[in-house]
Amino acid sequence: MSTEPNRRPRRRRALTVLKVLAALVAAWLVVDKAAALVSPEPQVGHWRGQEGYASYRAAYDTVMADLPEPTRTHDVRTEFGTVRVYEWAADDAAGDDAETRLPVVLLPGAGSGAPMWGDNLPSWIGDRTLYAMDAIGDSGMSTQSVPFTSFDDRAEWVEQMLAGLDIERAHMVGHSFGGAVAAVHALGHPGRVASLTLLEPVMVLEALPASVYLWSSLLVLPAPQSWKDHAMAEIGGTTVEEVRERTPMSVMVDEGSEHYAAPTQVPRTLTDDEWRSMEMPVRVDIAADKSLAGGREAADRARSLGKDPVTVWPETTHSLPMQAADRLGPELEGYWATHDR
Description:
The chain is α/β, with parallel strands linked by helices. The protein has one domain: Rossmann fold, CATH 3.40.50. 44% of the residues lie in helices and 15% in strands. The protein is built from 13 helices and 11 strands. The chain has helices spanning 4-38, 50-64, 121-124, 152-164, 177-188, 210-220, 225-236, 240-243, 248-259, 272-276, 295-304, 320-323, 325-338, and strands at 46-47, 72-78, 81-88, 104-107, 130-133, 143-144, 170-175, 193-199, 260-261, 282-287, 310-313. A hairpin with a 2-residue loop joins strand 2 (72-78) and strand 3 (81-88).
């Protein structure tokens, strides 16, 4: 029996959560810049208390239960801590050429972890092996034991994770903050990257719009909650009513935001020379509305640097991977197949 009638409302609710998460990500980036100036000492990401972690874990498990069941779960040690990685292996029905299909590695946006890919995974599971993880230094099941001294350190745990999983080369995909991490990783470890897909990557192409800093200030100042709800709606491209909606995903995000102390270090805007030095195929996907990646200016810059394809997706916001899931699924599979070498 088809589950499609139930899938749309679930996707709409998930989209709402990611729109709100976009606002929280923007606020987090603003706060981190201020915190880095006041307290420049490196910090280790940690849970503020066991009770808060337990609340988050319950919410996390609820969301994960709605995802396709992973083939395997890995806890990969790196010098910065342990990475929780979920693997969906290619199945026997993928055909004789399945062994030639390189794996795909999915790097999440801040605060969302592996659960953020719930609407995307069904398009890809079975055709090739997929890996999704919770980032070190963020809420999730990964743990951090050594502080980052720069944003580039975040690329190092990715590289060590890939080595720990014996992944020689992969198609790297990153959304939002994960897109920034993926770009820096590709810059430092080009031999590991067969192709690079950047979905609304924050700050590496263009700085955050000035309006984001304005609205984000309301999220970190002692303003009335109604003002904060309005600010989140403006940043996320949603409504105040949707901001106030409670879903399993929004509960997970809220619990992580409240109970996890994330380290500082924000992405930097890469130079033209750095972008041009990336010889692997790079595609960039940008939202047409409420983009946190820089919108059409970011798309224009990516094109001027020779990146191809560069797509501005109509009627999308920073929640692009979920909003365009039906179209993005086969398009990315075709893109990866072109660069399986």
